[in-house]
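User: Please predict the structure of the protein below. I'd like the answer in structure-token form so I can feed it into my own downstream comparison script.

Assistant: Understood. Taking the following sequence of 279 residues as input:
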Amino acid sequence: MPSTFTILAKRVFPNFNMRLRIRQIAGLPLDALDALTGKKDPLIPPRGLWFIGGGRRYREIAEETIGRMIAEGLTPQDRILGMGCGIGFTAAHLTKFVTQGSYEGFDVIRLAIDWASSNISKLHPNFRFQHADLFSQHYNPRGHIKSEEFAFPYEPDSFNFEFGLSLFTHLLPLSAEHYLQQMARTLKPGGTAFVTAFLINPESEALIQAGKSSLALSAHGNCWVLDAAFPETAVGLMESDFRRWSESAGLQLKRIDRGAWCGRTQFVGGHDHVILQKA
């Protein structure tokens, strides 16, 4: 989840390439030490590229998430779509499990896709990555496609399982509704989707207003955001809207596992976990 430092960094250095250069300089000593001591994992990018999905607990988080997806029916034979796949942290760990199926991933950051293609796909050709030239205020300000108009570059009924981690937490309502429609189009009948979100309902709203939440979201039109100047930094979607969009798209909402993000004392993970199934 975005920290106060992350928000401040994006305000002080709104240019992604500048923030990346700072990360690369800061990560260089430990990256060099890994190379010298033989600890470098060929499927894990250098620390200077840990702009999405990295951090000290990335292995643990990836393994926990994959375990939850397996519990929802993911199998080694499945054809899988990773939406907003970043630099491939989860995909790298999935290579151990998806031995007979295949994986497709897309992301807005070309550098992430280039690294994943050159490193993960090189060792695991059944894992493929595509750049989506979407406009993003932070990551791709010269992008040509609006996220609410983006057609997933795959045929209908292509995937058994789709997932988006920390994706809907950055999508504004029009884009979130559109992505659910695209998920329904590209999932096979009976296919499953696993996504994370910050869902606003009476419980989470009360906790936020009581100052219990790790994210100081506030109302912003028909959603809640962390930073009105950069709304996509963190987005809370109205749960009633999310349910309605899912049903309209043809996705059955099987379950929501509530996350700790808003200050709950009983939770599963940090974000809300939403499990959907195509009718």
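That's the full token string. Residues 137 and 241 are 24 Å apart (CA to CA).
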